[in-house]
Specification:
Elements lengths: L3 E2 L1 H8 L3 H9 L6 E3 L2 E5 H13 L10 H5 L12 H15 L2 E6 L13 H6 L3 H16 L8 E2 L5 E9 L2 E11 L8 H11 L3 H6 L9 H39 L1
Antiparallel strand pairs: 1-3, 2-3, 4-7, 5-6, 6-7
Length: 257
């Protein structure tokens, strides 16, 4: 007689809970026989069943969430992140570090809401064209060749930097910090007019909010440059763990169909 496996054996083999194994046995989806009141599983038939499923996996049940079937590292960054969770973490980091913070894709498009925006950014961003100009600044950060974060001027004349978010083997996005005043802040009247023109707002709007920015000394700036990549690494870790979990859920769904 063929060797018989127990439900515990199947649980270890398939990495699913025992109640799932019993349901599969009851419905005939898993090779099984009743020995008294206990389910047993012929080892040779289970082996054949596993091989068949490995060669031709069945489609997922319609009750499985779409995210389980559709998630892929080739998708946009937003589809790889639990955004509500990431927003909470981002808000906390922004509060602790004391700067503006946002997660974007590599084209500079925001994936999260900006955390702790400075007053100048808030005033200017009331105009849609101004927001697009800021996004172009973030896009330039994504196309920069440097791997190490560094502070560079944004379209507002404030300093910003980015940490890269890597998911799997791909660069998928950035954590952008900003709103930091450079050493020569506030700018001269001619530069105020230039900033206003770039963003399509009145010079008076820019002038009224020039001091609503973040002033960091040299040591604070150095700390921010270290932390921005560490924050990006946290976001990447969340995305990678979520992707791995979704892969496992999809595999379980195929087995339990």
């Amino acid at each position: 007689m063929a060797d018989l496996l127990t439900a515990r054996d199947l649980q270890a083999l398939l990495q699913v809970d025992r109640s799932t194994i019993y349901r599969m046995a009851e419905s005939g989806r898993l090779p099984a026989i009743k020995v008294g009141k206990q389910w047993r599983f012929p080892a040779d038939r289970v082996d054949s069943w596993l091989r068949a499923h490995a060669k031709a996996p069945e489609p997922l049940e319609t009750t499985v969430p779409t995210a389980v079937t559709a998630i892929t590292t080739d998708g946009p960054l937003g589809s790889l992140l639990p955004l509500d969770c990431v927003q909470l973490i981002q808000d906390l980091f922004a509060d602790l570090v004391g700067v503006m913070l946002v997660v974007t894709d590599l084209d500079g498009n925001p994936v999260t809401r900006v955390s702790q925006p400075c007053g100048l950014f808030c005033a200017v961003s009331q105009v849609p064209d101004a927001v697009r100009t800021c996004i172009q600044s973030w896009q330039a950060l994504g196309s920069a060749l440097e791997l190490e974060p560094r502070l560079v001027p944004s379209s507002l004349g404030l300093l910003c930097a980015r940490g890269l978010v890597r998911i799997g083997t791909q660069l998928k996005g950035m954590v952008v910090i900003g709103g930091i005043a450079p050493d020569d802040w506030p700018p001269a009247p001619d530069e105020v007019r230039a900033i206003a023109e770039r963003h399509g707002v009145a010079p008076e709007v820019v002038a009224a909010h020039l001091h609503e920015v973040y002033y960091l000394d040299a040591s604070q700036r150095a700390r921010v440059l270290v932390l921005v990549q560490r924050i990006a690494n946290v976001i990447a870790h969340i995305a990678n763990e979520r992707f791995t979990l979704m892969e496992k859920l999809a595999a379980i769904a195929r087995l339990t169909r």
